[in-house]
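Hi team,

As requested, here is the filled-out complex form for the glutamic acid run. I kept the field names the same as last time so the parser does not choke. Let me know if anything looks off before we queue the next batch.

— J.
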Amino acid sequence: MNDKQVRVRIAPSPSGNLHVGTARTALFNYLCAKKNGGKYILRIEDTDLERTEQKYIDNIYDSLKAIGLNWDEGPDVGGPYAPYQQSERFDIYKKYAQKLLDEGYAYECFCTQEELDAEKEQAIKERRAYKYSGKCRHLTPEQKEELRKQGKKPVLRFAVPEGHMKFKDLVKGELEFDLGLVGDFVIMKSNGIPTYNFAVVVDDIEMKMTHIIRGEDHISNTPKQIMIYNALGAEVPQFAHVGMILAPDKSKLSKRHGATAVSDFIAQGYLPEAFVNFIALLGWSPSDGEEIKTLDEIAKDFDLSRLSSSNSIFEYDKLKWMNGHYIRHLPIEDITNRAKAYLTDYDLSKYSEKQLQQIIESTREPISLLSEIKDGVSYFFEDELTIDEDVKNDILKTDLGKEVLEAFLKLCDELKFDDVEEIHHQLEAFRGVFKEKGIKPKQTMWIVRGAITGRTRGADIGVIISVLGKNRVVERVKKAMAI
Ligand code: GLU
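And here is what came back:
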């Protein structure tokens, strides 16, 4: 990279909630800025006024912040090239459009939709790819005047030159396009609103972008954009087009495969750390092969040369696995605090913070989504315990069930409720007694656990007994014996 300060951007269109694909593009731009001591800018591309909604703009802000991709300049924080929202920049586009018009790089086109449709139909009949004929390129001032008098409002089209366009993409390598296949494209609509290809270039010039990192679905736009840079006499930034993110069945990732919006993943209980780690691996690979990395570690290791030009598969299972890893490894104070967001239906004041941490510590092991914690800990909070039907019928109602519970009730008088270690020892001896009678230790414990939690699996039994305390344990055992 040359010594100019790196400036990169994420430029979402707020016509929906922030998509994972856009989040990944944001991440790569963010990482490029961090790695190179540059600036990462958020620009809201809201020229499509009909599809833009404030709730989507808010969702973009919230989602990017949730996964830690805070921007250096943007609509809300300002910056030297404000405004950063395209709908507030219409005057700027007009000025640039006028320049292109004055210098002959663009021209007014008065063709109606019907005329364009007819051109398209003709192309289909002749079995050739359609491109605009360019018939308005050479209209005389008089002809334009006449069309204006008829009430026609022109669009502005870029006059595409002949020849080939070559550019070096940092990910895809040398790319070449035949401009003969590119028709004169619209840069300003008749209502004065710029098209994407034009607005994006004007903004990237004005905001001094050095690198454009984005999905390869934009590659076909790039020659058009480079033509505009050239026409405006501006320096062309470096392009890096990354392969797309596909669904496990290799089709385009869509809602039918699962969540696609960052906010949905977060709401489902994915941890931002896990999510951002996972999406980093969709198109980037760590130099040491070690996949589990924090955002800071990824930023240190990041290099555009390690971005992949091929597509990546969004493996939901892998994301879940990774999320489980983060749930198990984050500090217990931290994960307990985050878990609280999913436990709002419970009266958490029943327990001290220390006890809550014990509860979470002993239940987080098999969980892959933090939202699952709600069900995982339910028996710590329920006044009326929910008991699984098969636990009732196959375990508690049996003669052995009654016998074990009767003995356990007696043990409760001696149990050291405030010492988890000691409880384990006492239970070991308890199991031993039944073992001598030929009852497997596992079976004995199913009965005890079934009575206290209503299930056969769950948290460490010592923690459960200790945290619930004598009164509740005894009460639950008595109720189970009465089933
Ligand atoms: N608004 C465009 C999009 O959301 C930006 C593309 C670009 O980065 O140039 O796809």
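Two things worth flagging: Residues 11-13, 45, 200, 214, 218 surround glutamic acid (CB under 6 Å). The chain is about 45% helix and 10% strand.

Thanks,
J.
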